[in-house]
Design goal:
Blueprint (H helix, E strand, L loop, with lengths): L6 H23 L3 H5 L3 H11 L3 H19 L6 H72 L3 E5 L5 E4 L1 H7 L18 H15 L8 E6 L5 E12 L5 E10 L1 H36 L5 H13 L7 E7 L2 E4 L9 E8 L2 E10 L13 H29 L1 H10 L3 E5 L5 E4 L1 H6 L4 H4 L10 H17 L3 E7 L2 E11 L5 E10 L1 H49 L5 H25 L8 H17 L3 E6 L7 H22 L4 E7 L3 E9 L14 H11 L3 E6 L3 E9 L1
Parallel strand pairs: 15-16
Antiparallel strand pairs: 1-2, 1-5, 3-4, 4-5, 6-7, 6-9, 8-9, 10-11, 10-14, 12-13, 13-14, 16-17, 17-19, 18-19
Length: 722
């Protein structure tokens, strides 16, 4: 079918057929074989040219067929002329077939050559495009590095073997106060302030160039063009030519003047923070001791003296003496000398004692006070707390000893005192109590107490009074009324026969103390957060910039095939590790952000840290939408959870810690549960102030803490109204 589809085969077949018919007709009508044999000339020529390879074979077959027909069919003799014609046709066919084959091969060779040339042209075109793209990429990369060098905030300078600056980017000129291009040709030594620094840098550079020292960072003081003195950190590296030979140095300039100033300010702030933390711990410890022990006992007074001494900025140079009701309590090395400060202790506006604090350190300059203003305030507050504790305990003792003394206390007490009958009627109340109820004493006596209680606290107060009536045990709590905080004691008063007669209510206005405690706590937390934020924003960003520079430097070294690229990569990993450690440090100082989920995120991170460090499962659950807009409440809630977890890890060796935070009906509830991993003493039975600290923090933000201790589980339950 392929042969029949070829037009040359069809045409040649037609020529052979026509010539055969002409040959038959000529032989039939004439006996002249010369004329008939001329019919073979046409297929001999056309067949050989059209069919190329097989044209000669077909022509030969055609000629011999004609000869056989002439002899066998028509019985005609073969003449010499006929033989010549047949031979000429056969030779012509052979020559033409050979020439056609040569022509075909030539054409094929030419076609192949043209295809090869086309392929070569395509290859050259692709190579040209590749080279063009490569040159464009190379140009773009060179431009990128140029832009990077010119836009990077750090100065970059190139020095020759003599220490002459041959190139400096825009940042270098900006750091040293020069116009762009003015630094070229300057000796780097001439920019230094101190002559000793110039000699030191010259020796260092020479040792670098001869290979006796390794490049390290240096911090120098430079003088700018306009006369300013700045601190500049220089990082060195070698500058090589294409052959790898050292032709100079590359210096990276970093203006660290502001960083050094910020570090000094940060150190000052840290010092202030430590002072305020000492003050907070002192006031809280003294308040705790006086509130949970006998304030007139020798042990209590000795502990107050030691705590007060240790809270001062120079405890090794400070001595304390407290004289109260004829007794004196002093530190071991007490010597009275100037300079000193003192504060009187008053009970019912009467002076009952004095606290003296003396400085026995190195001599001070004339008229210079070694004591800080905060230490003066702390001394006066301590004297106030001691006097207040003495006043409160004396009042309570006098109330238990004699009902007659009760009336005297009514007249002089600075706190509200009321006597309530078992059926809820006011039997007696002092003047200050009447004023706080905003009524006259005559109208209050004989009236029902619940009528004068605020609606929002009426139910809970009556419940507490009923509990005292049922159990016969006192109740103490704090209450907020009319933007003031009262320390309330509800005590049962018994007859001589042991039968309950009255309920005594003492309400002391502790608003100044609470405001002072809240102010101290707020300042402390704000300073902690500011310190953490400064570490993150300033030093953290600076380290991140250095990490980026080292990454660029490592890429350059890799591109140039230097083996030092791995050393630079190790430096980059160390800087990233430092950034992570700085982040954890700043996170510890500022655990809760101001965002909505800052409190939840801080608890999640704490649980993850417990699992990572102690390999103890610490589960965290959230129920409801937890939104605490008051940052002070959120921070104190977090520290309560942190203190509870630390107590569990320290005392219980738990196998599991579970923290749940929920929000329902304007109340935030948080429970921290843990089991006991080994047989240990109960957590509440151990000495320490961890649980009291949690209660103090909860009370500070208006919440409450309940401790639930079971056989195999310890639970801290926190409730906070929102």
């Amino acid at each position: 079918m392929k042969i029949l589809r070829s037009y040359r085969v069809i045409t040649a077949s037609s020529v052979y057929a026509v010539c055969g018919i002409i040959f038959f007709i000529t032989l039939h009508f004439t006996s002249d074989t010369m004329i008939a044999s001329t019919a073979v000339i046409v297929p001999a020529i056309s067949g050989s040219m059209m069919l190329r390879r097989c044209g000669f074979i077909l022509t030969t077959v055609f000629i011999f067929s004609c000869v056989l027909i002439q002899i066998l069919i028509f019985s005609l003799p073969i003449s010499a002329g006929t033989v010549i014609i047949y031979s000429a046709a056969l030779i012509s066919s052979a020559v033409l077939s050979y020439q056609a084959e040569i022509l075909r091969k030539t054409r094929n060779a030419v076609a192949n050559s043209m295809r090869e040339q086309e392929l070569l042209r395509d290859e050259l075109s692709r190579e040209k495009e590749f080279r063009k793209s490569f040159e464009s990429l190379l140009h773009e990369r060179e431009g990128l590095y140029q832009n990077l060098v010119e836009t990077i905030p750090h100065g970059i300078g190139v020095l020759d073997m003599r220490g002459v600056i041959t190139f400096a980017n825009h940042a270098s000129h900006h750091i040293f106060g020069y116009e762009y291009g003015e630094m070229a040709g300057e000796m780097i030594f001439n920019l230094l302030v101190a002559k000793s620094d110039r000699i030191e840098m010259h020796d260092f550079i020479m040792n670098l160039l001869n290979g006796t020292k390794e490049p390290v960072s240096y911090l120098y003081k430079f003088r700018t063009k306009d006369g300013r003195i700045i601190d500049v950190q220089i990082d060195w590296n070698y500058n090589h030519d294409r052959a790898g030979a050292i032709i100079g140095l590359i210096a990276v300039f970093t203006d660290v003047t502001r960083r050094i100033e910020a570090e000094k300010i940060l150190e000052i702030q840290k010092t202030e923070l430590r002072k305020r933390l000492r003050e907070t711990n002192c006031l809280y410890s003294i308040s705790y001791i006086l509130g949970n022990s006998e304030p007139l006992s020798d042990d209590t007074c000795s502990r107050v003296v030691e705590i007060l001494r240790n809270s001062f900025s120079s405890p090794e140079s400070t001595v304390v003496s407290m004289r109260i009701e004829g007794r004196q309590f002093i530190t071991a090395d007490f010597v009275f000398r100037e300079p000193h400060i003192h504060s009187d202790i008053h009970v019912h506006d009467q002076r009952v004692g004095i606290i003296d604090i003396c400085y026995i350190g190195p001599p001070m300059q004339y008229n210079e006070d070694p004591f800080l203003p905060e230490e003066h305030k702390m001394l006066h507050e301590t004297a106030y707390q001691v006097g207040n504790a003495l006043e409160k305990r004396k009042t309570e003792t006098a109330l238990r000893e004699s009902e007659t003394l009760l009336q005297a206390i009514f007249n002089v007490s600075t706190e509200t005192i009321a006597m309530i009958s078992p059926d809820g009627k006011i039997v007696d109340i002092n003047d200050i109590g009447a004023r706080r109820f905003r009524e006259t004493k005559e109208n209050l006596v004989g009236a029902m107490l619940y009528k004068y209680l605020p609606k929002e606290t009426r139910r809970s107060r009556l419940y507490q009074i009923n509990e005292v009536l049922k159990t016969g045990t006192p109740v103490r709590f704090q209450d907020k009324q009319y933007e003031r905080t009262f320390d309330i004691n509800i005590l049962p008063v018994f007859h001589g026969n042991g039968q309950l007669q009255y309920i005594a209510i003492f309400a002391s206005d502790i608003s100044p103390i609470m405001r002072l405690q809240e102010t101290i706590t707020t300042i402390s937390e704000r300073e902690r957060q500011q310190l953490g934020q400064d570490l993150h924003d300033d030093l953290g960003q600076h380290l991140t910039g250095i990490s980026y520079m080292i990454t660029v430097l490592r890429q350059k070294l890799q591109d140039n095939g230097y083996s030092e690229a791995e050393d630079v990569a190790q430096i980059s990993r160390q800087i990233k590790s430092a950034i992570e450690r700085l982040r954890k440090l700043s996170r510890g100082l500022c655990p809760i952000s101001i965002e909505k989920d800052g409190f939840i995120d801080a608890l999640k991170e704490m649980c993850a840290g417990v699992e990572e460090i102690y390999a103890i499962p610490c589960r965290f659950h959230v129920r409801g939408d937890i939104d605490i807009p008051d940052s002070l409440k959120a921070i104190n809630l977090f520290y309560i959870a942190q203190e509870s977890v630390n107590n569990a890890l320290k005392h219980a060796h738990p196998g599991l810690i579970d923290i749940t935070v929920s929000h329902e009906d304007s109340l935030i509830s948080m429970t921290i549960r843990n089991d006991y991993g080994v047989m240990v003493d109960t957590i509440t039975g151990k000495k320490g102030i961890g649980i009291e600290v949690m209660k103090y923090r909860a009370n500070l933000i208006g919440g409450s803490v309940e401790i639930i201790e079971e056989d195999s589980q310890f639970t801290v339950a926190v409730r906070l109204p929102i």
